[in-house]
Amino acid sequence: MMKQFFSPEVPADEKFIQKTDETFRLHRQALLAPFDPLKDEDYLALALKHGKWLRERFERVYFFGMGGSVLPAVALFGSNADESGIRFVETYSGSAFREVIESVNGNAHYVFVSKSGATLETCIECAVITRRLEEKGLNSAHHVTVVTAKSNSMLMKLAPPECYVLPLPDHISGRYSAFTHVAALPAAVKGEEFFNEILTGGRAVLEGVAEGALVETGAEFLRHAWTWYRDGARVMGVWTYDEPLRPLARWLRQVWCESLGKKGAAFDPDVLLVWGPEDQHSVLQQFMEGEDRRFYLFISAESDGPGDSDEVVFLPETVSKVMELRQGLNLKDVETAQREATASALVESGHRVAFINIGNGGNGVLGRAYFMAYMMFLVPLAGFIQGVDPFNQPGVELGKVRTREKLKA
Question: What is the CATH number that goes with domain 3-29+208-394?
């Protein structure tokens, strides 16, 4: 399903392999905790039931959240908007939220996601939308769902009484919530087939870990990244060309930075997101000839079979003639050639490059779910190897405290 390879190759290190195995055995329960919802049929059935009701009753369903309360779902969907009527709102600033406020109506439902129930932005959004629903004479409770781990929270006090409430597991950090109602509910709204693809991707990783193969695969990735980091590559440039993979890269940045950026960490490279050909035309010069302080992770989503013919846009014959290109090319061919050529140029110039192909029909959700599950295992493993807690985020809290102080009455 997923393939990874590296250039230059880092020789096998028996001590590192042994350390990885020992860490996995010692922290196995904690490492697998984010996958607990996959084994809870009642929990998953609740998402399916409520998702089916939302799909059949409403034309549009909005999901509000910050960071790990929404980004795992956006990463799985590959976009903030879906043709099925699902919209993900990640901030109340800018035009997106204003458009939601202006369009409040009886054919829409609004889902507010916050594990703590105290997220400032989500609480504000919930209060504003609830007020707007009531101003329009609508039954706000019928149009609001809260997804949270805390039943007696600020968010619950701001939400309409008798609104719908779905639980979040208290022991799973937001950034690792790809299989909780954070993503399971919107997936269920989209449809049971999409929902099951996500579960299949997660369960495939669980199976690979149980068999030991993915522990070895994860150790291989970490061995290369760790060695490159030690040799001076303190920044990981995550480069995606497929547009639906960009939210996946954003999610990886959050998981990587919040999990490994801790005091005492011996391995916590910064994450730099690089987008397709547009950044190829702006930053590649520095990458090629500037200070050698990065390694690069190219994430692609090719499969062995043909893509969806309905999505293929072929180049006009005039382009092939004028630019001396071979006949029958499509836009995907051009994008693939750009990615492969850029990666090859970096490799030929002696830069450190990792490649992960998530496979599965180009941009299928199964591939994205598998990749996310793989990183949900690999990144915490990297944290435990170096003795840091990959599931907390103490550095984030001070900023939240200072924000509340500035806004306090």
Answer: 3.40.50.10490
By CB atoms closer than 10 A (0-12, 13-18, 19+), residue 60 is: middle
Taking alpha carbons only, the member of 402, 405, 379 closest to residue 391 is 379
Q: DSSP alpha helices (H): ranges in 268-330?
A: 276-280, 284-289, 317-323
Q: Are 81 and 66 in contact (CB under 8 A)?
A: no
pTM above 0.85? Answer: yes
Which residue would you say has higher pLDDT here, 311 or 307? 311
| Mean pLDDT to the nearest integer, 47-59 | 98
Segments in 82-212 forming alpha helices (H): 95-102, 120-135, 154-158, 181-190, 192-211
pLDDT band at 362 (very low <50, low <70, confident <90, very high): very low
DSSP conformation letters of 240-275 = E-SGGGHHHHHHHHHHHHHHH--TT-S---EEEEEE
Separation CA 163–CA 374 (nearest Å): 35
- Tens of pLDDT, residue by residue over 230-279, are 999 999 999 999 999 999 999 999 999 999 999 999 999 999 999 999 99
Residue range(s) of every CATH 3.40.50.10490 domain in the chain: 3-29+208-394, 32-196
**Strand 60-64's sheet: what is its strand order?**
86-89, 60-64, 108-113, 144-148, 164-167
CATH label, 32-196, candidates 3.40.50.10490, 3.40.50.2000, 3.20.20.450, 3.90.180.10: 3.40.50.10490
In this predicted structure, the answer to whether residue 408 has a pLDDT above a threshold of 90 is: no
Give the type of residue at 56.
Answer: E
Measured from the Cβ of residue 151, the count of other Cβ atoms closer than 10 Å reads: 10
Please provide the average confidence, as pLDDT, over all residues in the chain.
Answer: 93
